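dumping the sequnces here before i forget
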Amino acid sequence: MDDTTGQVQADGRQRLWRTSVGDDLAFLLARANAVSLASANRILADEGLKVRSYSVLALVAAEARPTQRELSDFLRLDPSQIVALVDDLQDRGWVIREPDPTDRRAKVVVVTAAGRDAYARAHRRVEAHEREHFAILDDDEIAQLTSFMQRLARIDE
Amino acid sequence: MDDTTGQVQADGRQRLWRTSVGDDLAFLLARANAVSLASANRILADEGLKVRSYSVLALVAAEARPTQRELSDFLRLDPSQIVALVDDLQDRGWVIREPDPTDRRAKVVVVTAAGRDAYARAHRRVEAHEREHFAILDDDEIAQLTSFMQRLARIDE
DNA sequence: TATTGTTATACTCTATAACTATA
DNA sequence: TATAGTTATAGAGTATAACAATA
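..and the predicted 3d for all of it:
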């Protein structure tokens, strides 16, 4: 790469940022999420997890005793995708499926001791990463943003 | 569905929202984006577009005269994906590829008259949809959120 | 030697339908 | 008749490598 290539790329980006998409909230939301998701997946890869499997493990580790149907409903993933995610966590000994005493069709997903440890390790990494990632906002701004996101995330419930 | 099923689902969701993921900014960002993306794609389907192809059309319609390399760089999509998106828009007569006079390897993507019309129609729909989607926030909150997102969206440039 | 656009390919993700066992 | 979990499969999206033309 010659020494002007970086500058040329930066100029092109500047020109495109000044178009209407630079103010489009949906576009910005998608981009901000893509940046956040990519770095979170990088962090979680060290623990053998991705954002998807980490989310399942977090819900199970919180002793919420979700059925697979509840996980599917909450995470907005198809039941068949939940099967694959729970299979993966179960193969590593981090969760087990228990029969739901109130509905013999349903299976409650429960964390194991090893799963609790794995979650604790991953959670520490994720927290540190998020503090760093969102450090361009101050504490008040993060609180406001969290409130906005909580409202937007629950729009269609 | 019997008349208690909806309540059972809502209870399960409430229980899961109270876990740590309910305050996790990265999780909330992902969920808020998923909700926004899904509804935007529904709106754009009426014009034969998706968020991806709409973004390309918007950048081209702004007379930014991007090369495919610049589109790839800005949208963070692989050059081979840009090829497919531009092919699609070109097949519908909305954009054309012009040789870049300053670099014979590069192709500048330019909007046609029909493309300008298509973009205008799609843009009106998207604007109306976004006003409605983000109406749970007031004008000040939207301005703040836009500022936050602009900063987060450009973290790794 | 490095870069742009292109093609090909494999891989992951997502959506859908069908099946079983239960309700 | 409807629901929970499972399996299979097809489609969309994504990542990677290789190539020709050009820098």
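The CA atoms of residues 76 and 156 of chain B lie 11 Å apart.
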